[in-house]
What does this fold into?
Amino acid sequence: MRIAIRRERRRRSGTDHPGFKNPHDWPPFFDRLERLTHSLALTHKTDSPHFILVSSDQFLRQGFRFAPYPLSNGWVTSTLDNALDLLPKAPGVQLLVDIYYTDAPAIETLDRLRRISFEYPQNYIHLIAPTQDKKALRFMKAVTALRIISRHSPFRTLRKKLLMPKPIQFNRKSHFSRDEWLILMALTQGRSLKSIASDHDKDYHRIIYRLGRMVERLKLQHRSELIHLLQNLSASSN
It folds into this structure.
């Protein structure tokens, strides 16, 4: 008799396991909680910014603000100075710099980014730049550990690069050394090779040799091409 009563109770509760009700009778709260948990697991959204965008291009800035996550999850500024103030507030944040749309010539921005890459090696640096000028692109890649993003890239490409950034390390074989960079910066200031050699206490022919190595690395035909490239990068930004 007792066995029959217990079976009847289980039948009415909708299960053969005592202590558990029919899943379809769970309160709606648990369904909502499960859906919310699943949604959060899919998006992995965070309050921390994914990036700091440096650009004076209003069209690009608005595009980021209204783009899907994570492109909308970032800080936007028009100056590199503001970006430097923000970097300590978000350790590891990615830095996106619209190289021809800042408050300084491209070569000055590249010089500062080179220093930033040494001071904040944990931060990924991306340059947003047009890809038509192959010589300029090769020069930018040789400055320091950074990645180039085409200015004509669709937002889905930008999203992928921000969500899955690939680390890149400073390499003396592919990046300018300290002495090479000092020579390049002196050339942008209009200094002659003889004065550069004197300032660095180097033999003039040694400076010529270093310059030739840089020309070869950048796949240029003559050092005059490098001088012309530096002049273009020293022009005022848009």
Notes: The chain has a mean pLDDT of 80.
